[in-house]
Amino acid sequence: MNNLYIVILAYNYQNYIKECIDSVLIQSYDNYKVCIIDDASTDNTNKIIKKNINDKFNLVTNKSNKGALYNHIQALANNEIRDNDIVIHIDGDDKLIDKNTFSIINKAYTDNPDHLVSYGNYITASNNPSICKPWDKNITVSNYIAPIGWIFSHLRTFKYKLWKHINDNSFYDKQGKIFSSAADVAIMKPVLELAGRKRTMYIPKPLYYYRDNIPTNDHNKNLKDQVRCALEIKNIKPLKSII
Asked: How far is CA 237 from CA 23, 63, 169, 170, 228, in A?
C-alpha cells in the first residue's frame, strides 16, 4: 500500500470547498493524509473547512494571501513525508469524481513500481474537453508549455522523492519573486523532467471535476499573468532525469 499525501489549496471557496472535502472523505482507499491550506479567505471558507474535516486533515490558516505556488511549497516542507509517498494536488474549488480515485492511483504506482509521476484526465464544468493526452516521446516538457500546449493536468501526482531534487530557481521569476500564477506548470515542469517520459504515467480515466467556468479560476481572472509566468517557466534550464 502506498501512502498518499494530499494537498488542497483554498481561497474564498465557500461555495465549493465542502464538495471538495467530501470527495476525499468518501474515498474507498484510506491510507492518506491531507494538508489543507486556507489562504487567508475573507468569506466562510475557513468555517466550512473546520466543520467538515476529520483527523486525517491538517488545516493551515494563513494570515495573509500567499498564492498557490508558495502554499504548495509550504505544504511539502513537512519532515513527515517520506520519499515514496505519493503527492496529490487538488484545488479547493474542484473535486474528485470517483470514490475509487485513490485506489486507482495506488494501483497505478503499485503496478508500475519504477514510475514516479502521473497525470490526466478530467471533466470540466463547462463541458470543454480535457487537454490531457499521452506524452509524445519526441516532445520536451518545455515545448508542451509553448508552442504545443500544456497536457500535464489533473489529476497530478508524483513521488515525493522528486521534490527533493528541485532547486529554488524553478520557482522564481526574473524579478526574484515567486511565480504568482501557473503554479501547476512551475511544479510539474521540474517534476516531469526529473522523472522522464518513461517513468511518467498518463491515466485516461477521468478522475477529476475541474470548475473551469467560475470567476475565481486563475485562467479566467489572471490569464495575462498566467501566460507571462508560463513563458518564463518554459525558459528555465531543464533538470536532468534522476534515472
From this structure: 37, 34, 9, 9, 17
b (16+ CB within 10 A) / e for 225-242:
ebebbbebbbebeebeee
Q: What is the DSSP letter of 117?
A: E
DSSP character for 171? G
**pTM as predicted:** 0.95
Place of cell 496529490: 88
Amino acid letter, residue 241? S
Confidence of residue 217 (pLDDT cuts 50, 70, 90): low
Q: What cell numbers appear for 241 in the block?
A: 532525469
Instruction: Identify the DSSP state of 128.
Output: P
Structural fold of domain 4-234: Spore Coat Polysaccharide Biosynthesis Protein SpsA; Chain A (3.90.550)
Determine the residue type at 65.
Answer: N
Provide the 3-class DSSP secondary structure of residue 113.
coil
Do the Cβ atoms of 183 and 154 come closer than 8 Å? no
Indicate the domain borders of the chain.
4-234
DSSP summary character for residue 174? T
CA dist list (Å): 168 to 84, 144, 165, 187, 209: 22, 22, 10, 11, 31
Q: Dihedral (C-alpha) 206, 221, 181, 44: value to the nearest 10 degrees?
A: -80
